[in-house]
Each structure stands twice: as structure tokens, then as C-alpha cells.
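We emphasize that the prediction below concerns an isolated chain of 218 residues; any contacts that depend on oligomerization or on bound cofactors are therefore not represented. The input was used exactly as deposited, without trimming of termini.
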Amino acid sequence: MKASSILPTGRFGISHSTGSRPSNAASSAGRPLAGTPTTRAASTLVPACRRAVEEVADVDDDLEDWRADYDPARLASLLAPAVERPLQGLSRWASDPPAFSREDVRWVHFVAARGSYEVPVLLPSVDGTWNWCGYGDRCLTPLDDSALLRRWHEQWGAELFFAVGSCLELVVDRPPLDPQGAAQAAAELHAYCHDTVHDPVGTGDTTARSTMWSLWWD
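Result of the prediction step, given as a C-alpha cell string:
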């Protein structure tokens, strides 16, 4: 399946032609938008990209390098060729009881929902992404989390199976195997959880193509 892009190319942060920071940015790039899950997912990821370029990068940094981390088209050219089958993923959090408790205890929640992507809305206290920041003090809401999980479910068959505190894990039924799809997934994971996904290239070659996505917000 071809990955559909929701991250912009040359429409935020810096100009391809000059490398300069724009004086006036799109009015939608700092606040959540209503609409379809894909629209809301985009309104979540774009501020993360824009914040990295306009607020985090130092003046002397190569802004094109910063943008490249969020640009699937550029990222794809740096990734390994397509693989024939998904990489076997390993749980990072659900399989490590000492990380959360001195006892080997797990609570199982049965939730009446159309899909696991609705869990952040139905059980908003089960996980937290409070350390995520976007441009203009944009923060994540349960609806944002749900929109991204639904997008990943529809695109790659991702299912939420573990969430506690600031940790979240997805089992992925059909992860992207080609560089283009893996680059799209890696860029979105990078924008959604920079605390875990520091290296989009490494993520595009490994995690994005695996059957398990483990995320953690510091």
C-alpha cells in the first residue's frame, strides 16, 4: 500500500529557495484543526515540524538538515532498499514489569470501541503525552492521539495494545517495507514522539518496518 503524506513539503518553517525563516506563517500551523482524522493528524504533526525549524534550531544550524528529518521525500533517499517481510519487533515496555512496578502486575482493560485508536479518548488517563510541544505552545489532546492512531491503523494496521503513563506500544500488522512508506512512517513517528525517535533514518530502516512500535515521552 502506498503511504499517503500528511507532512508538508516547502510550506512551513523555511524556504527551499532562500533557507530563510518566513515572517508570516500559515495561520493553521499552531493550533488544532477540526475535521477528519487525517486533517487533525496533520494539524498535530505540522506544528512539531515547524517548532523544530523555527524555535529549536539554532541560528547557525543548517536548517535544511532539520527540515530533512521531517520530509519523507528526502528521507526516503537515505533509507535502505525495500525488504521482503516485516522485521520482527520486540516489546520494550509491556515486557518489562520492573519499569513500572516492583511487582509483575498488569491491568487488562476491556473497552467498547470501534478500534483501539479510540482508547485515548475513552480512557484519557491511561497514557500521557504531556511532554510534547508544537509551534506556538501547541499541545496534544486525546483527540490528537486518537487521530494519529486511527491514521496509522488505516495506513499500516497499527493497533494499540499497551499504554501506561508516558509509554505506549503498537503492534503493526502491515508495516511499510519500501523506503517511501518507511520514510513517511519514520517522519510521523519523529514528529509525534521525538523523545523516542531521535534518528529518523535509523527508525526508517528498523522500527518503521517492524511489527512493534514502542514510544515514550520523557
